[in-house]
């Protein structure tokens, strides 16, 4: 599977084709140096995983380097908590940075470069307010107009910029702008803002600065300082590339990183934007950044996704130049594949129905042998305790079954996985409500699993747990965060929130062997899907399991119907 995925990736990764060409031409002295530049204003999501796999994966493929650089130029939205979470998530995904930087490390140099631009006559201090600046800027169909402050002398600009830096003006009073071309068809070239005034304490530089550089100005310079060769970013920056190049050309920087854009990852039924995820959190629609319904890396981890499954997903999706939307079933497929191979099997009854086996001795208990993985004997076996009273799923019994129902019904016989055949002989109901509360069955000792019994066959095999030995547990089932999957637009996502995205079943029973299950470990509950022990809420007394993904392979179906 993995080899196949990598194959697909190699054919579709246009960035690697560009790099191959660069290496042939000895561009960038034959080096490959990438970077992943998150803004620490939220937790990383699965979209970032794509950028991480691409940047770190590219460096690895070419024996190059990849930096982690926090783009911390907006002190109002950024927090140390996010920095730590981002580092943890990257490591968990299986990557490590060669060097760690913060854009704020370059504040001094960025300031000096701004002074240089002023001296070159390529930057000016502008007093227009936001509203006026917007009017002067023009639109896609209408050219912009020069700011009345555009022709200030170099001396005056130097003096005003220094005053900006010294905190002599209020927030928003003045900005430093590049002097390029207000008539450019590209709005990003119409004298973009380089610096704004913000009287805010920065996590790292504290109160040293009250002017902060804009992302578009910071980015090319940070890339150049670090010797980045290929600056990979998402497609929305394509129109920003002329400015990226303008900055480095004008400053005549000795390093010339090259910006290459790739398509952002979009996934059906999923919100992929830190800003929007933060909004969900602030409105109390989710419990935290790591709420297992979130598409963040930390939520996927808590949900039971493995790093490999996320890397495989990014590989399958590939790197394309055009935006598209990927079916979330593909992500589910990737984790199902990985867990199918590696997760131990076990039994859990989510909606229990009590079954008394009448002909089984009262005090007897047996420890039956169950394999941990049907295809991998190396994963060993475990003991399944069996006794007179067991639980099966309510859904596995019907009093009046239709023809094709092969599970338990009055007078019918089924196999209990790893145990015996049982036959239902009586149904006990609540006198008042008429609800079924218990079944009476008999078992056939000859049919013990592994005994080679072949005198008669049964069609259904049920999972079960022994009442005396089972552990009570809570099981959480998750649905997609957004409904209406046909709509790819997530801007109006608030109307599309799935109100039933989590179902908490608190009266479940899991087999005894789960007593030692560590937080975060994954299992297949037979016939139910893949589950993991919750890392936050689970305790020895009350284990909590999150369903990572069901057994059903919807992606296989989707891809078949698409063929
Ligand atoms: P968000 O809108 O979620 O805040 P962002 O692009 O503002 O995303 P950054 O922290 O600036 O987040 O992103 C760091 C890197 O991750 C950028 O290079 C960005 O292009 C990339 N990235 C973010 N979202 C996606 C996505 N959905 N698909 C691919 N790459 C992404
Ligand atoms: Mg951003």
Question: What would your notes on this structure say?
Answer:
- The protein is of the alpha/beta class and 563 residues long.
- The chain folds into 3 domains: 2-262, Rossmann fold, CATH 3.40.50.620; 274-345 and 473-562, Ribosomal Protein L25, Chain P (Beta Barrel), CATH 2.40.240.10; 348-463, Ribosomal Protein L25, Chain P (Beta Barrel).
- Helices cover 28% and strands 24% of the residues.
- It is built from 14 helices and 27 strands.
- The protein has a 7-stranded mixed β-sheet. Strands 21-18-19-20-14-17-22 form a 7-stranded mixed β-sheet, with no helix packed on it. A 4-stranded antiparallel β-sheet has the order 4-5-6-7.
- The protein is elongated, with a radius of gyration of 31 Å.
- The two termini are 20 Å apart.
- Residues 1-8 and 558-563 have low confidence and may be disordered.
- Bound molecules: adenosine-5'-triphosphate and magnesium ion.
**Order of strands in the sheet with most strands:** 12-25-26-27-23-24-13
CATH superfamily of the largest domain: HUPs
- What is the count of DSSP helices, taking H or I runs of 4+ residues? 14
| Low-confidence blocks of residues | 1-8, 558-563
How much helical structure, as a percent, in the residues?
25-40%
What is the count of structural domains?
Answer: 3
Return the structural class.
alpha/beta
Terminal Cα span: 20 Å
Bound molecules: adenosine-5'-triphosphate, magnesium ion
The dominant shape is: elongated
Q: Kindly report the oligomeric state of this protein.
A: single chain
Architecture of the largest domain, according to CATH?
A: 3-Layer(aba) Sandwich
Rg to the nearest angstrom? 31 Å
Largest sheet report: 7 strands, mixed
Q: Look at the structure and give the mean pLDDT.
A: 93
CATH topology of the largest domain: Rossmann fold
CATH class of the largest domain: Alpha Beta
Beta percentage is 15-25%
Number of strands: 27
